[in-house]
Write a structure and sequence with these properties.
heterodimer, A: 124 residues, mainly beta, four-stranded antiparallel β-sheet, 0% helix, B: 110 residues, three-stranded antiparallel β-sheet, 9 strands, globular
């Protein structure tokens, strides 16, 4: 059974960089059947796609966040990460990591497995 | 990229059917059959209920169905049950290799 688990600092000061990690068990992030993605949700609001990482580190990012987002992967730890720089109160949200099917998977381009989410609060 | 357009809320009586629409553009919903739908209970992570417009993952009730016409996708839930009360989100792959979500629809089972 595949499980994803987010981890992060919880509280971040404005203008700093928040770093989040997603640990994957039951699947290998090196397989070409999936991409790996970050999605966030401010309290009481909708979902926002942040970006995806795949292959050996290829990425696509939401254009509205692209200048502040960096994603990376550590295949030795089976983890992938999100760095979001210059954070403001508008970045306060629950951040989810999710598995995204590729054309090599029977669920193509949909988020089929999600982590439980980790809350990030931006406050001084 | 602009969010896909969903109604803020829909409601229905137990046993009846409801449909939630999701309107995009020719660069996302209209361009690909990569529309998916998610059910989200309060305080929980979203759960995939429909992928590739109309396919159900294993374990999802056949009361859930999806379709698409032009730039608008739809999720239909038939035989409404109290447990269906949740927030529902659509998402689509786009022509710039990104994903865009709808604003979400709150379903009330009256």
């Amino acid at each position: 059974q595949v499980h994803l688990q987010e981890s992060g600092p919880g509280l971040v000061r404005p203008a700093q960089t928040v770093s989040l990690t997603c640990s994957v068990s039951g699947d290998s992030i090196s397989r070409d059947t999936h991409y790996w993605s970050w999605i966030r949700q401010p309290a009481g609001k909708g979902l926002e796609w942040i970006g995806r990482i795949y292959d050996s580190g290829s990425t696509n990012y939401n254009p509205s966040l692209k200048s502040r987002v960096t994603m990376s992967m550590d295949t030795s730890k089976n983890q992938f990460s999100l760095n979001l720089s210059s954070v403001t109160a508008a970045d306060t949200a629950v951040y989810y990591c999710a598995r995204l099917g590729s054309s090599g998977w029977y669920i193509n381009r949909a988020f089929d497995i999600w982590g439980p989410g980790t809350e990030v609060i931006v406050s001084s | 990229q602009s969010a896909l357009t969903q109604p803020a809320s829909v409601s229905g009586s137990p046993g009846r059917s409801i449909t939630i629409s999701c309107t995009g553009t020719s660069n996302d919903v209209g361009a690909y059959n990569f529309v998916s739908w998610y059910q989200q209970d309060p305080g929980k992570a979203p759960k995939l209920v429909i992928y590739e417009v109309s396919h159900r993952p294993s374990g999802v009730s056949n009361r859930f169905s999806g379709s698409k016409s032009g730039n608008t996708a739809s999720l239909t839930i038939s035989g409404l049950q109290a447990e269906d009360e949740a927030d529902y989100y659509c998402t689509s792959y786009t022509s710039t290799s990104t994903w865009v979500f709808g604003g979400g629809t709150k379903l009330a089972v009256l």
